[in-house]
Amino acid sequence: MKTYVTKPAEVERRWYVVDAEGKTLGRLSSQVAAILRGKHKPIYSPSVDCGDFVIVVNADKIAVTGRRMEQKMYYRHSGYPGGLREFTLREQLERHPTRPIELAVKGMLPKNRLGRKMIKKLKIYAGPNHPHQAQQPEVLEL
Which domains does the chain carry? Predict the structure, then answer.
């Protein structure tokens, strides 16, 4: 038998819409990361980007368990001495409501050129509207 190898030209991409309202941040992120990688397809190959596009709407209405809104910290450094800034999840959602999902999904993707290519297929919006109606996205229930 011959081993099947997925070729980038053979990959057929689809668009999915995921409503994040009331969904747990980590569970939602892991399922979105699997779709971006293409692990739900029978032609999955770890060295080829065979995933689909994902549109996440209502990103500002995600849920977390316990006291994670106050305890989960995000860090940013300016590069200068004393330039470390830290934000709680609540502050991050107020300032940049799409960033917690983006950072969670990005951490679940490969840390190389392939991962950087995959994260570009993720579109996140704070509200219920998105500008991708022309792609005819399918609603995905997670």
Answer: 20-64+102-139 (3.90.1180.10)
